[in-house]
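Justification of resources, computational component.

The compute hours requested in this renewal are based largely on the per-chain cost of generating structure records like the one below. Each record pairs the submitted sequence with a full structure-token output. That output is archived, and it is also reused by downstream analysis tasks.
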Amino acid sequence: MSERKIRVVVAKPGLDGHDRGAKIVARALRDAGFEVIYTGLHQTPEQIVATAIQEDADAIGLSVLSGAHMYLFKRILDLLKEKGGEDIAVFGGGIIPPEDVAALKVIGVKELFAPGTSTQDIIRFVREHIRAAV
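The structure output for this chain reads:
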């Protein structure tokens, strides 16, 4: 039996309209052989979690540039727990101060990538830390 591809939902929560980075990451993950569902701009945490559960995602990758990262990541982690999706890993990127990166990791965010991170580093992270549920 072959293992299915790792499935990643890439999402842009909130009102931030800059999605170039999210699209670059989504394409890089897809080109690396992962199954990627890109949700588009202006998604609510509720929409993102609903998509991840409906699509049987293994991970959610969030792009947050709006400054609302503490709220958005925590809300998504809380909703995943509430909806039975706590096995879905959450990672992300954006403009996030180092002290907030540490706080987000404490609450369960698996990894955070700063602007300018190589897509190869993100691909390596997904390969090494995300498992496809079979």
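The beta strands are 7-11, 35-38, 59-64, 89-94, 111-113. Helices lie at 20-31, 45-54, 69-82, 98-107, 119-129.
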